[in-house]
Write a structure and sequence with these properties.
The chain has 13 helices and 16 strands. By secondary structure, it is α/β, with parallel strands linked by helices. It has one domain: Alkaline Phosphatase, subunit A, CATH 3.40.720. The strands form five sheets. The protein has an eight-stranded mixed beta sheet with strand order 6-5-7-1-8-11-4-12, sandwiched between helices. It has a two-stranded antiparallel ribbon with strand order 2-3. About 11% of the residues have low confidence.
Length: 438
Protein backbone atom coordinates (compact mmCIF):
# COMPACT_ATOMS: atom_id res chain seq x y z
CA UNK A 1 0.00 0.00 0.00
CA UNK A 2 1.35 3.42 -0.96
CA UNK A 3 1.74 5.61 2.09
CA UNK A 4 -0.12 8.66 0.77
CA UNK A 5 -0.21 10.45 4.13
CA UNK A 6 3.36 9.52 5.11
CA UNK A 7 5.23 12.62 6.26
CA UNK A 8 8.63 13.49 4.87
CA UNK A 9 11.76 13.68 7.02
CA UNK A 10 11.28 17.37 7.79
CA UNK A 11 7.69 16.74 8.89
CA UNK A 12 8.77 13.87 11.14
CA UNK A 13 11.38 16.09 12.80
CA UNK A 14 8.89 18.94 13.12
CA UNK A 15 6.42 16.87 15.11
CA UNK A 16 9.20 15.51 17.27
CA UNK A 17 9.21 11.92 16.15
CA UNK A 18 12.45 10.81 17.78
CA UNK A 19 11.61 7.19 17.13
CA UNK A 20 8.70 5.28 15.70
CA UNK A 21 7.45 4.04 19.01
CA UNK A 22 8.25 7.28 20.78
CA UNK A 23 6.18 9.10 18.20
CA UNK A 24 3.22 6.84 18.89
CA UNK A 25 3.11 7.91 22.49
CA UNK A 26 3.99 11.57 22.00
CA UNK A 27 1.59 12.26 19.14
CA UNK A 28 -1.31 10.36 20.65
CA UNK A 29 -0.86 12.00 24.04
CA UNK A 30 -0.67 15.49 22.58
CA UNK A 31 -3.57 14.91 20.23
CA UNK A 32 -5.94 13.59 22.84
CA UNK A 33 -5.00 15.90 25.69
CA UNK A 34 -8.13 17.38 27.24
CA UNK A 35 -9.17 20.96 26.57
CA UNK A 36 -11.53 23.15 28.55
CA UNK A 37 -14.46 22.01 26.41
CA UNK A 38 -13.92 18.91 24.30
CA UNK A 39 -15.60 19.47 20.97
CA UNK A 40 -17.70 16.85 19.25
CA UNK A 41 -18.87 16.15 15.72
CA UNK A 42 -21.98 14.76 14.01
CA UNK A 43 -21.04 13.59 10.52
CA UNK A 44 -24.07 13.20 8.23
CA UNK A 45 -23.30 11.06 5.17
CA UNK A 46 -25.99 11.32 2.49
CA UNK A 47 -24.58 8.40 0.54
CA UNK A 48 -25.42 8.17 -3.15
CA UNK A 49 -24.54 11.71 -4.22
CA UNK A 50 -27.05 14.54 -3.50
CA UNK A 51 -27.54 17.03 -6.30
CA UNK A 52 -25.91 20.36 -5.52
CA UNK A 53 -28.07 21.98 -8.23
CA UNK A 54 -31.27 21.04 -6.44
CA UNK A 55 -30.15 21.60 -2.82
CA UNK A 56 -27.31 23.98 -1.94
CA UNK A 57 -26.10 25.53 -5.20
CA UNK A 58 -29.00 26.14 -7.61
CA UNK A 59 -28.58 27.90 -10.93
CA UNK A 60 -31.88 29.77 -11.45
CA UNK A 61 -30.54 31.75 -14.41
CA UNK A 62 -29.38 28.67 -16.32
CA UNK A 63 -31.30 26.85 -19.05
CA UNK A 64 -34.03 24.40 -18.03
CA UNK A 65 -31.93 21.25 -18.57
CA UNK A 66 -29.34 22.64 -16.12
CA UNK A 67 -31.72 24.39 -13.75
CA UNK A 68 -33.73 21.23 -13.16
CA UNK A 69 -37.32 20.75 -12.00
CA UNK A 70 -37.28 22.86 -8.82
CA UNK A 71 -37.60 26.57 -8.09
CA UNK A 72 -35.30 28.36 -5.65
CA UNK A 73 -35.93 30.21 -2.39
CA UNK A 74 -34.18 33.01 -0.56
CA UNK A 75 -32.18 32.32 2.59
CA UNK A 76 -31.11 34.13 5.74
CA UNK A 77 -27.98 35.15 3.83
CA UNK A 78 -28.83 38.12 1.58
CA UNK A 79 -28.52 37.23 -2.11
CA UNK A 80 -28.01 33.50 -1.49
CA UNK A 81 -30.60 30.98 -2.67
CA UNK A 82 -31.18 27.28 -1.99
CA UNK A 83 -33.41 24.77 -3.73
CA UNK A 84 -37.08 25.18 -2.85
CA UNK A 85 -37.20 21.90 -0.86
CA UNK A 86 -34.56 23.23 1.59
CA UNK A 87 -36.90 25.60 3.42
CA UNK A 88 -35.68 24.69 6.91
CA UNK A 89 -32.01 25.11 6.09
CA UNK A 90 -32.75 28.35 4.23
CA UNK A 91 -34.16 29.93 7.40
CA UNK A 92 -31.02 29.16 9.39
CA UNK A 93 -28.46 29.75 6.64
CA UNK A 94 -26.85 32.40 8.83
CA UNK A 95 -25.66 29.52 11.03
CA UNK A 96 -24.27 27.50 8.10
CA UNK A 97 -21.05 27.48 6.11
CA UNK A 98 -21.80 26.15 2.63
CA UNK A 99 -18.78 24.97 0.65
CA UNK A 100 -19.81 25.17 -3.01
CA UNK A 101 -16.43 24.14 -4.43
CA UNK A 102 -15.92 20.55 -3.28
CA UNK A 103 -14.06 18.43 -5.81
CA UNK A 104 -12.24 15.12 -6.30
CA UNK A 105 -11.71 12.66 -9.15
CA UNK A 106 -13.80 9.61 -8.24
CA UNK A 107 -17.08 8.82 -10.02
CA UNK A 108 -17.71 5.49 -8.25
CA UNK A 109 -19.91 5.48 -5.14
CA UNK A 110 -17.56 3.35 -3.05
CA UNK A 111 -14.44 5.25 -4.09
CA UNK A 112 -16.23 8.57 -3.54
CA UNK A 113 -17.40 7.53 -0.09
CA UNK A 114 -13.91 6.33 0.83
CA UNK A 115 -12.25 9.63 -0.10
CA UNK A 116 -15.01 11.55 1.70
CA UNK A 117 -14.56 9.79 5.04
CA UNK A 118 -10.78 9.18 4.93
CA UNK A 119 -9.42 11.85 2.59
CA UNK A 120 -7.34 9.19 0.82
CA UNK A 121 -6.88 9.26 -2.97
CA UNK A 122 -4.89 6.01 -2.78
CA UNK A 123 -7.47 3.80 -4.50
CA UNK A 124 -8.96 2.81 -7.81
CA UNK A 125 -12.22 4.31 -9.06
CA UNK A 126 -14.29 1.13 -8.73
CA UNK A 127 -16.37 -0.99 -6.38
CA UNK A 128 -14.47 -2.89 -3.72
CA UNK A 129 -14.92 -4.23 -0.21
CA UNK A 130 -13.17 -3.06 2.94
CA UNK A 131 -9.63 -4.36 3.44
CA UNK A 132 -7.36 -4.65 6.46
CA UNK A 133 -4.91 -2.18 4.92
CA UNK A 134 -7.48 0.58 4.29
CA UNK A 135 -6.93 4.03 5.74
CA UNK A 136 -9.05 4.14 8.92
CA UNK A 137 -12.20 6.20 9.25
CA UNK A 138 -12.36 9.16 11.69
CA UNK A 139 -14.13 7.14 14.39
CA UNK A 140 -11.39 4.52 14.35
CA UNK A 141 -8.70 7.22 14.50
CA UNK A 142 -10.33 8.74 17.58
CA UNK A 143 -10.52 5.32 19.24
CA UNK A 144 -6.86 4.69 18.45
CA UNK A 145 -5.79 8.01 19.94
CA UNK A 146 -7.79 7.38 23.11
CA UNK A 147 -5.62 4.35 23.97
CA UNK A 148 -8.08 3.15 26.59
CA UNK A 149 -11.70 2.20 26.90
CA UNK A 150 -13.78 5.16 28.03
CA UNK A 151 -16.96 5.19 30.07
CA UNK A 152 -18.86 5.79 26.84
CA UNK A 153 -17.74 4.98 23.29
CA UNK A 154 -15.68 7.75 21.76
CA UNK A 155 -17.21 7.15 18.34
CA UNK A 156 -20.58 5.74 17.27
CA UNK A 157 -22.05 4.94 13.85
CA UNK A 158 -25.79 4.70 13.26
CA UNK A 159 -28.29 3.43 12.19
CA UNK A 160 -26.42 0.99 9.89
CA UNK A 161 -23.09 0.38 8.21
CA UNK A 162 -22.81 1.36 4.59
CA UNK A 163 -22.52 -1.89 2.65
CA UNK A 164 -21.64 -3.20 -0.80
CA UNK A 165 -22.75 -6.48 -2.41
CA UNK A 166 -20.06 -9.09 -1.86
CA UNK A 167 -18.78 -11.70 0.57
CA UNK A 168 -18.36 -9.25 3.46
CA UNK A 169 -20.79 -6.45 2.45
CA UNK A 170 -18.34 -4.01 4.08
CA UNK A 171 -17.88 -0.64 2.38
CA UNK A 172 -14.35 0.70 3.00
CA UNK A 173 -13.60 3.80 5.04
CA UNK A 174 -15.89 3.16 8.00
CA UNK A 175 -13.68 0.77 9.95
CA UNK A 176 -10.33 0.47 11.69
CA UNK A 177 -8.43 -0.45 8.51
CA UNK A 178 -4.72 -0.76 9.17
CA UNK A 179 -5.28 0.20 12.82
CA UNK A 180 -7.20 -3.05 13.38
CA UNK A 181 -10.85 -3.86 13.91
CA UNK A 182 -10.57 -3.26 17.65
CA UNK A 183 -10.76 0.44 16.80
CA UNK A 184 -13.99 0.17 14.75
CA UNK A 185 -16.67 2.65 15.83
CA UNK A 186 -19.47 1.27 17.96
CA UNK A 187 -22.50 0.52 15.75
CA UNK A 188 -25.99 1.31 17.03
CA UNK A 189 -28.19 -0.36 14.47
CA UNK A 190 -31.95 -0.29 14.07
CA UNK A 191 -34.96 1.78 13.16
CA UNK A 192 -35.12 4.59 15.75
CA UNK A 193 -38.40 5.89 14.33
CA UNK A 194 -40.18 2.68 15.32
CA UNK A 195 -41.82 2.08 18.70
CA UNK A 196 -39.95 -1.18 19.29
CA UNK A 197 -36.51 0.40 18.81
CA UNK A 198 -34.21 -1.34 21.32
CA UNK A 199 -30.73 -1.39 19.76
CA UNK A 200 -28.84 -2.41 22.89
CA UNK A 201 -30.08 -5.15 25.16
CA UNK A 202 -27.29 -4.39 27.61
CA UNK A 203 -28.69 -4.45 31.08
CA UNK A 204 -27.69 -6.33 34.18
CA UNK A 205 -29.50 -9.58 34.74
CA UNK A 206 -31.75 -9.94 37.75
CA UNK A 207 -29.70 -10.38 40.92
CA UNK A 208 -26.51 -8.94 39.39
CA UNK A 209 -25.29 -5.58 40.66
CA UNK A 210 -22.25 -3.61 39.48
CA UNK A 211 -19.99 -5.01 42.21
CA UNK A 212 -20.85 -8.61 41.39
CA UNK A 213 -20.43 -7.95 37.68
CA UNK A 214 -16.96 -6.50 38.32
CA UNK A 215 -16.07 -9.62 40.28
CA UNK A 216 -17.13 -11.83 37.39
CA UNK A 217 -15.07 -9.73 35.01
CA UNK A 218 -11.96 -10.12 37.18
CA UNK A 219 -12.47 -13.87 37.58
CA UNK A 220 -12.93 -14.29 33.85
CA UNK A 221 -9.64 -12.48 33.21
CA UNK A 222 -7.82 -14.69 35.73
CA UNK A 223 -9.17 -17.93 34.24
CA UNK A 224 -8.27 -16.90 30.73
CA UNK A 225 -4.87 -15.34 31.50
CA UNK A 226 -2.83 -18.30 30.27
CA UNK A 227 -4.55 -18.27 26.91
CA UNK A 228 -4.26 -14.52 26.59
CA UNK A 229 -0.52 -14.62 27.12
CA UNK A 230 -0.22 -16.76 24.00
CA UNK A 231 -1.62 -13.97 21.85
CA UNK A 232 -0.93 -10.46 23.16
CA UNK A 233 -2.83 -8.77 20.33
CA UNK A 234 -6.00 -10.75 21.07
CA UNK A 235 -5.64 -9.92 24.75
CA UNK A 236 -5.56 -6.20 24.04
CA UNK A 237 -8.59 -6.44 21.75
CA UNK A 238 -10.62 -8.67 24.08
CA UNK A 239 -9.76 -6.58 27.12
CA UNK A 240 -10.75 -3.33 25.43
CA UNK A 241 -14.04 -4.68 24.12
CA UNK A 242 -14.90 -6.32 27.43
CA UNK A 243 -14.11 -3.18 29.40
CA UNK A 244 -16.21 -1.09 27.01
CA UNK A 245 -19.22 -3.40 27.33
CA UNK A 246 -18.82 -3.54 31.10
CA UNK A 247 -18.68 0.23 31.45
CA UNK A 248 -21.72 0.72 29.22
CA UNK A 249 -23.73 -1.67 31.37
CA UNK A 250 -22.66 -0.17 34.69
CA UNK A 251 -22.41 3.50 33.68
CA UNK A 252 -25.67 3.55 31.76
CA UNK A 253 -25.26 6.87 29.96
CA UNK A 254 -25.43 5.30 26.52
CA UNK A 255 -28.44 3.18 27.45
CA UNK A 256 -30.09 6.31 28.81
CA UNK A 257 -29.30 8.24 25.62
CA UNK A 258 -31.01 5.57 23.55
CA UNK A 259 -34.32 6.08 25.35
CA UNK A 260 -35.91 8.37 22.80
CA UNK A 261 -39.20 8.05 24.67
CA UNK A 262 -37.73 10.46 27.22
CA UNK A 263 -37.92 13.24 24.65
CA UNK A 264 -41.09 15.29 24.42
CA UNK A 265 -43.55 14.62 21.64
CA UNK A 266 -42.89 18.12 20.34
CA UNK A 267 -39.14 17.51 20.08
CA UNK A 268 -39.57 14.18 18.32
CA UNK A 269 -42.05 15.74 15.91
CA UNK A 270 -39.69 18.63 15.32
CA UNK A 271 -37.01 16.28 13.99
CA UNK A 272 -39.60 14.25 12.10
CA UNK A 273 -40.76 10.70 12.82
CA UNK A 274 -38.48 9.39 10.10
CA UNK A 275 -35.32 7.29 10.16
CA UNK A 276 -33.08 10.29 9.59
CA UNK A 277 -35.10 12.48 11.95
CA UNK A 278 -34.97 10.16 14.93
CA UNK A 279 -31.38 9.16 14.13
CA UNK A 280 -30.20 12.78 14.31
CA UNK A 281 -32.16 13.25 17.54
CA UNK A 282 -30.39 10.16 18.84
CA UNK A 283 -27.07 11.65 17.67
CA UNK A 284 -27.72 14.77 19.75
CA UNK A 285 -28.50 12.64 22.81
CA UNK A 286 -25.31 10.61 22.32
CA UNK A 287 -23.25 13.80 22.10
CA UNK A 288 -24.83 14.92 25.36
CA UNK A 289 -23.91 11.55 26.88
CA UNK A 290 -20.24 12.11 26.05
CA UNK A 291 -19.73 10.46 22.66
CA UNK A 292 -17.32 12.61 20.65
CA UNK A 293 -18.11 11.53 17.09
CA UNK A 294 -21.47 10.29 15.82
CA UNK A 295 -21.64 9.26 12.17
CA UNK A 296 -25.04 9.06 10.51
CA UNK A 297 -25.12 6.81 7.43
CA UNK A 298 -28.05 7.31 5.10
CA UNK A 299 -28.84 3.95 3.59
CA UNK A 300 -26.79 2.71 0.64
CA UNK A 301 -26.99 5.00 -2.38
CA UNK A 302 -30.30 6.47 -1.26
CA UNK A 303 -29.37 9.72 -3.02
CA UNK A 304 -28.37 8.05 -6.29
CA UNK A 305 -31.03 9.53 -8.59
CA UNK A 306 -30.33 8.74 -12.22
CA UNK A 307 -33.99 9.07 -13.13
CA UNK A 308 -37.26 10.66 -12.01
CA UNK A 309 -35.42 13.12 -9.76
CA UNK A 310 -38.43 15.36 -9.20
CA UNK A 311 -40.68 12.80 -7.51
CA UNK A 312 -37.76 11.12 -5.73
CA UNK A 313 -36.52 14.35 -4.19
CA UNK A 314 -40.00 15.39 -3.08
CA UNK A 315 -39.91 12.24 -0.93
CA UNK A 316 -36.37 12.26 0.46
CA UNK A 317 -35.30 15.92 0.66
CA UNK A 318 -37.94 17.34 3.07
CA UNK A 319 -37.25 14.73 5.81
CA UNK A 320 -33.52 15.43 5.55
CA UNK A 321 -34.02 19.20 5.57
CA UNK A 322 -36.35 18.95 8.56
CA UNK A 323 -34.01 16.72 10.55
CA UNK A 324 -30.86 18.68 9.72
CA UNK A 325 -32.37 22.08 10.51
CA UNK A 326 -33.93 20.75 13.73
CA UNK A 327 -30.55 19.38 14.81
CA UNK A 328 -28.73 22.68 14.23
CA UNK A 329 -31.45 24.70 15.98
CA UNK A 330 -31.74 22.24 18.86
CA UNK A 331 -27.99 22.24 19.46
CA UNK A 332 -28.00 26.04 19.45
CA UNK A 333 -30.88 26.23 21.93
CA UNK A 334 -29.07 23.81 24.25
CA UNK A 335 -25.83 25.82 24.02
CA UNK A 336 -24.17 22.83 22.36
CA UNK A 337 -23.66 24.18 18.84
CA UNK A 338 -20.44 26.06 19.58
CA UNK A 339 -18.83 22.79 20.69
CA UNK A 340 -20.53 20.45 18.18
CA UNK A 341 -19.46 20.50 14.55
CA UNK A 342 -22.16 19.26 12.17
CA UNK A 343 -21.06 18.09 8.71
CA UNK A 344 -23.65 17.39 6.00
CA UNK A 345 -22.26 15.90 2.80
CA UNK A 346 -22.45 13.23 0.13
CA UNK A 347 -19.65 11.55 -1.78
CA UNK A 348 -20.11 13.72 -4.90
CA UNK A 349 -22.72 15.79 -6.74
CA UNK A 350 -24.77 15.23 -9.88
CA UNK A 351 -24.30 16.15 -13.52
CA UNK A 352 -25.10 19.73 -14.53
CA UNK A 353 -27.37 18.61 -17.37
CA UNK A 354 -30.48 16.51 -16.68
CA UNK A 355 -30.35 13.17 -18.54
CA UNK A 356 -33.04 11.62 -20.74
CA UNK A 357 -34.53 9.87 -17.70
CA UNK A 358 -35.22 13.16 -15.94
CA UNK A 359 -32.40 12.49 -13.49
CA UNK A 360 -28.76 13.40 -12.96
CA UNK A 361 -25.68 11.18 -13.04
CA UNK A 362 -22.49 11.07 -10.91
CA UNK A 363 -20.40 14.26 -10.87
CA UNK A 364 -17.35 14.72 -8.57
CA UNK A 365 -15.96 17.76 -10.44
CA UNK A 366 -17.87 20.13 -8.15
CA UNK A 367 -20.45 19.68 -5.40
CA UNK A 368 -21.41 21.06 -1.98
CA UNK A 369 -20.72 20.24 1.67
CA UNK A 370 -22.34 22.11 4.57
CA UNK A 371 -20.84 22.77 8.01
CA UNK A 372 -22.38 24.24 11.13
CA UNK A 373 -21.23 24.85 14.69
CA UNK A 374 -18.04 23.65 16.31
CA UNK A 375 -16.27 26.98 15.86
CA UNK A 376 -17.23 27.36 12.18
CA UNK A 377 -18.44 30.81 11.09
CA UNK A 378 -22.06 30.93 10.04
CA UNK A 379 -23.58 32.78 7.11
CA UNK A 380 -20.64 31.87 4.85
CA UNK A 381 -20.58 30.70 1.23
CA UNK A 382 -17.09 29.35 0.57
CA UNK A 383 -15.90 28.84 -2.99
CA UNK A 384 -18.10 28.70 -6.05
CA UNK A 385 -19.03 26.61 -9.04
CA UNK A 386 -19.34 28.03 -12.53
CA UNK A 387 -22.65 29.24 -13.99
CA UNK A 388 -23.55 25.67 -14.98
CA UNK A 389 -22.56 24.03 -11.70
CA UNK A 390 -20.11 21.95 -13.71
CA UNK A 391 -16.66 22.97 -12.48
CA UNK A 392 -15.05 24.80 -9.57
CA UNK A 393 -14.63 28.47 -10.39
CA UNK A 394 -13.11 29.61 -7.09
CA UNK A 395 -11.38 28.12 -4.00
CA UNK A 396 -11.40 24.34 -4.68
CA UNK A 397 -11.82 22.16 -1.58
CA UNK A 398 -10.86 18.49 -1.37
CA UNK A 399 -12.56 16.11 1.10
CA UNK A 400 -9.22 15.88 2.92
CA UNK A 401 -9.48 19.63 3.61
CA UNK A 402 -12.88 19.17 5.26
CA UNK A 403 -11.43 16.37 7.39
CA UNK A 404 -8.39 18.46 8.32
CA UNK A 405 -10.76 21.22 9.41
CA UNK A 406 -12.82 18.70 11.37
CA UNK A 407 -9.71 17.44 13.18
CA UNK A 408 -8.61 20.99 13.94
CA UNK A 409 -11.99 21.82 15.43
CA UNK A 410 -11.97 18.58 17.47
CA UNK A 411 -8.67 19.64 19.01
CA UNK A 412 -6.55 17.08 17.12
CA UNK A 413 -3.65 18.23 14.96
CA UNK A 414 -4.22 17.09 11.33
CA UNK A 415 -0.52 16.11 11.16
CA UNK A 416 -0.90 13.77 14.15
CA UNK A 417 0.76 10.45 13.36
CA UNK A 418 -0.90 7.05 13.48
CA UNK A 419 0.86 3.76 12.77
CA UNK A 420 0.00 0.61 10.89
CA UNK A 421 0.95 -2.94 11.92
CA UNK A 422 4.43 -2.49 10.47
CA UNK A 423 4.96 0.72 12.49
CA UNK A 424 4.81 2.88 9.35
CA UNK A 425 3.70 6.45 10.14
CA UNK A 426 0.74 8.22 8.56
CA UNK A 427 -0.66 11.68 9.16
CA UNK A 428 -4.37 11.53 9.92
CA UNK A 429 -5.02 14.10 7.18
CA UNK A 430 -3.08 15.37 4.19
CA UNK A 431 -5.56 18.21 3.75
CA UNK A 432 -5.44 21.93 4.45
CA UNK A 433 -7.45 23.42 7.30
CA UNK A 434 -9.98 25.81 5.74
CA UNK A 435 -8.98 28.79 7.89
CA UNK A 436 -11.45 31.05 6.11
CA UNK A 437 -14.30 29.21 7.85
CA UNK A 438 -12.93 29.48 11.38
Amino acid sequence: MTNQFAPNRRELLRVGALSLFGAVASSATAASSPTNHRRSCIFIMLQGGPSHHDLWDPKPAASAEIRGPFQTIGTAIPGVRFGELMSGAAKLADRLAVIRSMTHKFTNHIAGTYVTVTGSDNQQDRDREAHADDFPGPGAVLNYLEKRAGDVPRSVSLPNWLSIPGPSNRMPGQYGGFLGSVHDPFLIAGEPQKKNFKPLSISMAEGINSGRLHGRLSLNKQLDRAAWQLEQGLEDRYDRLMQSAYKMVVDGRVREALQLSQESKATRDRYGRTKIGQSLLLARRLIEAGVQLVSYNDFNQKWDTHGNLHSRYKKIVPPMDRAFSALVEDLAERNLLDDTLVINTGEFGRTPVMNNKAGRDHWPNVYSTVLAGGGIRGGVIHGASDNKGAEVSRQPVHPADVLATMWRQLGVRPNTLIYDRLARPYMISSGRVIDELL
